[in-house]
Amino acid sequence: MLTNEDLTGTVFQRSLLTLSDFASSKMAGANLSETEISRTRFEGADLTRADFTKALGWRANFGQANLTGAVFSAADMNRSNFAQVKAAGANFSKAELNRSDFSGADLTGANMSKAELARVLFQSARMTGVDFSYSNLSRARLDGQDLQGVNLTGSYLYLTQLGGANLSGVTGLTQAQVDIACGTAQTRLPAGLNPPKAWPCKDEEE
């Protein structure tokens, strides 16, 4: 266990850290690229600008951690917990994050382009300026979200939950994307786009 340790700038590259406990540790600028961190605990840790490039972290726990400016490019973090993290400006491009939880997270300006985000929870997250271009958001939960400045160019929105979401300020959204998503009468779309007759969607099998 390394709980509450000062590991600022430490190089863990290619290390096997499965089931380790870094909760509340100081790890700003740490290099965790290509590490194995499945089921590893980082709750409340300071991971500002930490590098998780190509890390493998199935069910890793980052709850309430500071991930401001952190890099998760091409990381495999499926089913991980990012609830209430501070991740403004973080880079999740090409990462696999399917079924992960970002509820209540600050993702302002985060890069999630070309990421796998199927069934990810984004409820109550701050998402201004997030780049979702060419990402897979199928069945992700964006309902009720204010998506001001969010880039949805080329993103896959099959059954993406947009009920009550404000998409009036997004960029790159097309009618074809809207037609396969799930919204409600309260969903706000950009000018020129229209809600399909299929809204609201019928309940689908999980």
Descriptive terms for the model:
single chain, 206 residues, little secondary structure, 1 helix, elongated
Biggest sheet architecture: none
Q: Count the E strands.
A: 0
* Content of β-strand: under 5%
Which secondary-structure class do the elements indicate? little secondary structure
What does the average pLDDT come to? 96
Overall radius of gyration: 17 Å
Please write out the topology.
Blueprint: H1 175-180
Structure description:
This protein has one helix at residues 175-180. It is low in regular secondary structure and 206 residues long. The mean pLDDT is 96.
Short synopsis of the structure:
The protein is largely without helices or strands and 206 residues long. It has one helix and no strands.
